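User: Fold both of these, please.

Assistant: Here is the first one.
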Amino acid sequence: MSGDFARQTEALFVNRLKGITGLPFQWLLPLIFFCLGLIYLYASPNFESPDSIYHLGVIKWIAEHDGALPVQSPDHNHLYEQEGSQPPLYYLLMTPIWLRLDTEDFDEVYYQNPMVNLGHPSKLGNRNLIFYKQPYPPNLTGTSLAIYVIRLVTLGMAPVTIAAVYQSARAIRPDSVGFPILATSFVAFNPQFLFISTSVSNDNLAAMLGALITWQLLVMLREGFQTRRSLLLAALIALMTLAKLSAMAFVAIVALAGIWLALRKRDLRGLVILGGSMLVFWLVIASWWYWRNLMLYQELFGTRMMIANFGGRSTTIPRLLVEEFEGFRRSYWGVFGWFNNLTSEYHYVAMDALTALAVGGLVVYLLKNRKKSYELTVCCVLGAIVSVGMAMIIWYTLQTTASQGRLIFPYSAAISLLLALGLTALRIPAGLIALPMFVFAAIVPFVYIAPHYDHPPRVENLPETAVRTFAQWDDIRLIGHELPDLQRWSAGDEIPITLYWHPLAQSDAPHALYISLLNARGKAIVTIDTFPGWGTLPTTWWKADAIYRDEYILQIPDNAKGFSIVQLQIGWYAFPNGSDIQPILENGATASTYFIPVGAFVGESHSEIAPEGATTTDTLFGDSISLDAFRFLRGDTLELYWRLRKPLSGDWRVLAIVFAEEFQLGQAFEVLMQADSVPKVPLVYLDKGQTLRTTHTFEVPENLEDEYPIYVAWYNFDTGERLAIPYPENMLELPAFTFASVPK
């Protein structure tokens, strides 16, 4: 697009937004972010972000041990887990909040879901780490209130990050309005950053300090050394080294940038002040924690002890790229919960495309500004921050599983500035990117987060769309269900299931529900094992006499194989090790289990092709099905191989009969043996060209060893109608076979 069009579009977007709000953007964008953050805070319950319970465990430990930090050991079993090895600044800041509020009910609030699905976003349900008595609106008492206050204070750090990114962009291009908006949007409207900003995590403090350091560093590169700025940078770096080890990347880059600036400006004094203040502030603010690590663990950073607690591994960079890069990339833009909740696939594709465009645009930017010292220096410094930060993360993930995009949020200012530089070099208007990102970020909490944690809704009455039914397991009654019409299912299909439960009383112990898709042999193709509400509501919290609408999706595996009628098996058992509870039916009888038919399963790879040695034929029954081949086995079994030529509805079965004498139309006959067969899958579920086999095993009378022809026909079980062929009684006569009784 032309430069004029880009500038006009940018100006229109900027002027409209200014006119609506009347606020300058350095205040408007942090305010918009904070409002979005409140929505994310509401949508995501307290414990549903990665490692938040462990970060909270550190706060809880400090509060309960008079300010003492946790001491790590490889064999400990504490709530803080590996996070006890983290630098302590964030936890020390949050501990007073925990101390001021009543948290005696922590053990009651932290009621873990033993079936939680961690790290598998392709699996549906059980996304919640714990059970919440009141997910929405959230409970604001006791421990729950304390955690929400901590999360709110933590969220308050993020607008500072947003403001720092905006000011960093202005330091690079002070004459542009669109560039700062675009750069800030990559942080402010990143759903993952919003999500993490509302969690109990030291990532937020590190991201804020990292953005502030980036801002002051860029200003220093433009304006040169200034004593006040050097002191501020030194204080920020010292604080960040006490907040998260990712600060080490900034220590190295600020030092190198200072050396470069001193050489360029010939200002040795400025470098000495910067370096000296960095050392002094670090000694005063942060050195004690590193000295503690040396005394306790004989290492400066405590990473060996952290890995020992989390679990070490040995891998290679190529394996990381192949096995974990996709998850790392996605979790920078939006993977929620405990790595078990994705956004739309289109979102990841869009962000990948923008990143690729930005990388190409950076090349254009560098070529255009190859003779401009400041612009090149900015790109080098920002690139160095990202590169050193990524190198540290790669080093860490080579030793333990930690491929999470949020780990580079301390460098998000540098990342966003580089993305914006590349895209503006291609003359892409800021509003063309910022506005869709804002809209999507506003949608995410309602569509991709909150629905996974809410309880199943209660309804007043069974809706008209539901099929009334009756089955009762102890005090749990199934009064209705909604299912798709009977149909053919294939590998990869999803079966939506809605069940209506009417508990007669609140359970004293948790009962678990299972829903299985069974084939004709009773083998499960797939099973859901869960608590009600797909893991959100244990039966101990059910309200007696309420009606719960409980929805599930049964995912048939992509590699599932089979050819059979199928039905749902629904059952309950006492969790965790109790036996199945037998259902009582409406007539008062106790059943072994409860079934609901759903149609047939036909695996995509299923084929019933006649083996070698079978006798081929091509006899058409009616205009619907033909006999391709047949064979006789063991003296008592006939196998028939069929091909559907035209869709056929109804309960059609195959007659296979042997007469004592050759069949003559109109004459009396004696049936010697008969072995009818029902197709494994009713013909109504098969497609044109689908093949199937019917097997007919005869009960051969003792001492019968003679040749007899077998007559076969298709008949409708309900009407008695037969498919027409040009033979008497629409029966095909097969050659005579030698029968023999088979020992049982």
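And the second sequence with its predicted structure:
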Amino acid sequence: MSIIQNIRERGAWIIFGIIAIALIAFILQDGIGRKRGATDLSTLGKVNGEVINKIEFDEKVDIQVQNYASQGVKREQMIGYIWSQEVDRLLYKTEADKLGINVGSKELSDVLFGNESPLRQEFTDKTTGEFKVNDAKNAIAQIKKSKNKDQIKQIEKIYIEPSIENRIRNKYQALVVRGVQLPKWLAEKEYAQLNSISSIKFVGIPFTTISDSSIKVSNDDIAAYIKENAAAFQIEETSRNIGYVGFSAAPTSNDSATAKSQILAYKEDFKNATDAAVFLNKAGTEIPYYNSYLSKKTLQIPQKDSVLNVGVGNVYGPYVDGKNYTIAKILGVKQWSDSASVRHILIATSNPQNGQVVRDDSTAKKLADSISNAIKGGASFDDLCAKYSDDAGSKANNGKYDLFPQGKMVTPFNDFAFDNAVGGKGVVKTDFGYHYIEVLKQTAKGPAYKIAYLSKPILPSNETINAASTAAAQFASSSKDVKSFNENAVKINKQVLPASNIKINDFEIQGLGETRQTVRWVFDKDVNTVSEPFEIGDNYFVAVITGEEKAGLASVEAAKPQVEGVIRDQKKAEKIKANIKGSSLEQIAANAKAMVQTADSLNFNYSMIPGLGNEPKLVGAAFNKSLVNKLSAPIAGNGGVYVISVNGVSAKQAQQDPSAFKEELLNRTRSVVYRTNVALKKVAKIEDNRAKLY
């Protein structure tokens, strides 16, 4: 027994050792694997070796999203915009560093407070249109003096850094543009052409005389054309195409009826509730309670007239409002103006941008009351506003907000402006702090209504959701590739919808909307892959990757819609040329059953011909003096094949001075090369990691 026991104990240690070694190996292998395949989360990209740091990039995105929030700009949209800005910034930085281009402190001051100052909007007098330079300088100085790191950082990010970057860009572009010169001979030639006119006779045989069906365009024809015109068919970024079908999980009529009956159960209690805010807080509502008044014109609700006609204390509904059933209750009516003007001084208690405490509540209240008393005693409002107000948005305008509509301001501020008569003054508390407010102006008064809304969503039932989800899952499991995907769609009478030209950094797919995860799937999988069902809104979708267009020379399939018609016309032109016979225009016209036509006063710089359209080759030939009173070779144009004879080329009275024309031509030529960033991108080494990190 002791021998057997000894073997068992030793065997156990051997097994333990093997397991331990295996675990260590696995951990090391996993660590090595992770290290090799890890994505650098701090580097969003590189331009010519210069790093675009993701943290700094996100800060810039957040600032712009905040700046454009009122315009409904989304973060996803801003990521692409800021990426382009950052790439351009580093492209110009590279070139500026080579050339020693920089911006000194005096030059920066001229930019910040000059005619094109980025501060003009905030510090322009709305009445006079005057840019208050000293106010702008004082505001910047006060922020720097305050040593508030967040505010100083915002000033640098929003105003100073962009100003420096724009200045450097402008300097570089100016150097490039000024390097473009116009040879004297070219200016003289262009001037002579501008002031020349031609008269021609011609016979035109339209391409329409040959039916499209009689001309075959092969894929080899298209491939040859693409190769011959390679510069026009370069694709800069790889894209993919998908087909998809949808399975609706939207509420059915039964679901709608259920939702309606559920909200009806609240109706009587809602009508009898003495405190609408408390009732809605307890019952829940999709439309937040707004504890103030709005005029009929301002109200944006369905069945507005019916709602307003029920009278104070009564309810109307339920009615459909978007994806909700809603019951409205009229709580009160007042006579209010549509718009009001005020001036105010804000004594802030917190910074609305970061939530940091500026001063405690009691200190702010005392200061606001002191300002109120000082103004009552005859102190200058403008002086006190300039000294104490924390509202940068109105401070430059002496604290004024002109003719803002109802509901524009936070509720206490809004109610003071519309509840009080012109001339009313007082201290009001809001989430921002304490405001000393004076009402300056109001428009004509009319009825304004306080309305509470009990709003409940019309939701799909579990049965509805399960039916859609199951149908989508069955479709996905039975579809293995594009062929079976399309066949299965026909079987269940579903239309396969296409979405093309999807790029790796897109956040949206045509027809599907915002769906970043689906875009990532499209590029993670191979062409011909069918997706699992994915949910967007009230639908389950199943997609299949139908194709890919790689960066580089366009494929035959991609170029076909653009090229096929051009090649067909080229083949028609060859047929028409082969059948042109005759030694005069009259003979050619007779054989082709066409007419000899004339075109007078043709200008070399204008390729449109009345009755024919855009025919630059024809216009070019019209100024070939070797064709005066002679027949040209057949010319394949945009609409047909032409044979011409030039009657004569003559000068017309010049409409512009030669020196002025040369200057204009030079400026036009320079404008073509002004977008230097396009050229710089083509030769730059750009690494883009956005698809991995977003």
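The chain has six domains: 1-38, 44-178, 191-235+557-651, 239-250+461-550, 253-335, 339-443.
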